[in-house]
Amino acid sequence: MKPFRLAATAAALLLSLGAASQAQTTLRIGLAEDPDILDPTMARTYVGRIVFSAFCDKLFDIDEKLNIVPQLALSSETDDDGKALVIKLRPGVKFHDGEPFDAEAAKFSIERHLTLSGSFRKPELASVERVEVVDPLTIRLVLKSPFSPLLAQLTDRAGMMVSPKAAKEAGDKFGLRPVCAGPYKFVERVQQDRIVFEKFADYWNKDNVFIDRIVFQPIVDATVRLANLKSGGLDLIERVLATDLKDVRADSRLKVATAIELGYQGVTLNIGKDKAKGPLSQSAKVRQALDLAIDREAINQVVFNGEFQTGNQWINPDHPYYQKAFPVRARNVEKAKALLKEAGVTPPVSVDFLVSKGAETETPAQVIQSMASEAGFDMKIRVTEFATGLKQAEAGDFQAYMLAWSGRVDPDGNSFIFLHSNAPQNYSAWNNAEADKALQEARLVTDPTKRKAIYETLTKLVQEEEPILYLYHRRIIIAHTTKLEGYRQMPDGLVRVIGLKLK
Amino acid sequence: MLNFLARRLAQIVPTLFFVSVLIFSLQQLLPGDPALVMAGEERDPAVIEQIRRQYRLDQPVPVQYVYWVKGVLTGDFGESLRNKMAVRDLIAQKLPVTLQLASMAILIAFLIGIPAGIVSAVKKGSAWDWGANLFALWGISTPNFWLGIMLIFLFSIELGWLPASGYVPPTENWRASIAATIMPAFVLGNAIAAILMRHTRSAMLQVLESDYVRTARAKGLLERTVILKHAMRNALTPVITLGALELGTLLSGAVLTEQIFSIPGFGKLIVDAVFNRDYAVVQGVVLVTATIYITLNLVADIAYILVNPRLRG
Predict the structure, then answer these.
(1) Residue A366, exposed/middle/buried by CB under 10 A (0-12, 13-18, 19+)?
(2) CA atoms of A30 and A248, how far apart (whole Å)
(3) Which of A130, A159, B43, B47 would give a disulfide with A59, using CB separation of 3.0 to 4.6 Å?
(4) What pLDDT, on a 0 to 100 scale, did the predictor assign at position A367?
């Protein structure tokens, strides 16, 4: 008995040593918030999109230059004068539950986005009338009218494919145990604590997946997130503060990956819904004066250590659709004062300035306040918690509102819903027929040169009328340990896990 | 005794009813719209309208209340707006975490606070007393978030002994679990230890001057026996009650501390729920916390009666 026990112990020991030598690699990612539901149809947060990119592949993706590249699709072409989009699908793709990904599954996923109660994808896919299966690996989206941003929509959640079998069984609880066709599959989630994924053995691109597990941990406090990275508790963190960059760069064990965001930070000026009918809402000249009073570069230097990029349009200056004919104007206090005089306004112009709570909004708001005061504005900052501010913005209960937008790949996603007179998030209540026409036309035209020309008209109108003062574009800052290799930052801020290695 | 118990239990029902009405109506006073918050960046009016209908947010408040109470009575606390999880499951997930953190914190508080209080009372006016008072002042006036971050810098970054944040359940790995919770438990316990120390000290001082202690000393008992056996027992009764109340407060969640150490307990749950206007979660958590608090009070009352028969009336 004894020798047997000894042998068994020895064997067990050897086995455990063997296991240790091929230890599993785990990538631990620190998130700035706890994501919402992990169902691509019902999800709505930026942080959720970071998690999705680890487990839920899309029909298309973007590259560093914002080109649209195939992912679960192989190719696409427009048909019927832009009223149809034919998509060829990648063969041999499987969902995490072993179900095949084919034209029927793609049709199911898109129809689910379109019809599920509480779907946030419905507005994004509003142009799609129906989905047809052409052959087992080809689908055809029939559109109500041509819609050029559609392909870009399919690079995000609207293009995510879910297993029809799992989705039918789980209904609106699908997000509690999501089943997609991405590089990692869902293992478990403890709310506000962790979300765990493991490598999917049958992934179509498995040769480029090198890490066994991924654990996402929400850590709200940016200082603590960074402390975890430094102490080795995490391998990668998102949303590092611009003011911490110097510290991170000085640490030889850490690396920084950055990109300028697709979104913008700006101040929405209430034009159509201002109950007080203040000068700011009544005269474009007064809005021009406010714009000229602001030194964007100074905000960037003072508040963000010069790490952000100043801007004046809904897309950043590096974006292919940026209108170089309308560069950022320099601060000119004299001209601003003159414009106020022309408008027949006696300073100080009092402005109810709604600002959401948080250092990255409150501090720049204070800088704006002090700059604007030199030109004759009395910006009365009113700090509210985000949910409250949003409600007041909807009601038009503000004169200026500091609001950020996380950005979309297609310029339409940064402009239409904020600037079109009937759009839901046009908090400025700006109503300009010419602008509406340009926004609609830009959706119909697919040729980039022609589209850019249309957007030029819109840019000119926005620069004159100033429903939104675009100020700057934040830098997406990801920090990771030097143990992690192959990380590249994309402008959409998401963390892509393909090709990553842990030393 | 039975009579007393029955009376107290009967009082719990209206108390909880009152609490539930209070949470429900106070919450309605919060500005902001849950459907709008839930929509995040995707604020399409049609979708928002659908959410309102689905979660009965378009119904009058009393109607919403009746639906909620009906659910609670059958053990259904509703569903989180944000992630569709049953509130009951969320609470079941968080309660053990909060229990663990709270009991560790209270243990630390007792271990530090009581000895410090006794020593400073016995050695009144000495350097010991002075040191213990300084500690108490420090403990009460140090903000939790500051101490928390300082501990992280020292023990996680500089020394690398403890994980900076996160949580491991004891069932998974008890060593890792203690390592993950010791810093937040210390931060919480430290503040309470200071309060306990002050109370122990004053109670001890009072008792030490009483007649029976003088008698005990006169009998020639060892000073150690006088203090530990005669004086301490009497002095500690109010201190233990205080400790029990502090435990109740800890169980309702240590918001800031949980936030800093990313401990997924009640505090973090309720803060996130308030900011997201996730009403069902707020209601569920507050109701459970209130129940725990009331129960702890009842237990304390029963303990009093067992100790002091004069209260039995």
Answers:
(1) middle
(2) 15
(3) A159
(4) 96
CB-CB contact of A119 with A42 (8 Å): yes
Out of A176, A384, A387, closest to residue B275 by CB: A387
**Token pair for residue A107?**
């049709």
What pLDDT was estimated at residue A70? 96
Here the tokens at position A410 are 């297609």
**CATH label of the domain that carries residue A202:** 3.40.190.10
- Six-digit token pair at A96? 């995490």
- The answer to whether A487 and A472 are in contact (CB under 8 A) is no
Residue A283's Cα: distance from chain center in Å?
33
Dihedral of CA atoms B102, B103, B106, B108 in degrees, nearest 10, equals -110
Per-residue pLDDT reduced to its tens digit, A468-478: 999 999 999 99
Distance (Å, whole) CA A33 – CA A219: 6
* ipTM score of complex: 0.75
pTM for the whole thing?
Answer: 0.84
Q: Which domain holds residue A74?
A: 57-166
Q: Are residues A130 and A221 in the same domain?
A: no
For residue A36, the chain B residues in CB contact (below 8 A) are: 40, 82-83
User: Of A140, A166, A192, which one is at a domain's C-terminal end?
Assistant: A166
Instruction: Name the domain count of chain A.
Output: 3
Q: Is B163 on the interface with A (CB under 8 A)?
A: yes
Q: Are residues A490 and A368 in the same domain?
A: no
Give the nearest chain B residue to A173 (CA atoms): B84
Cβ–Cβ below 8 Å for B40 and A228: no
**Is residue A7 in a domain?**
no
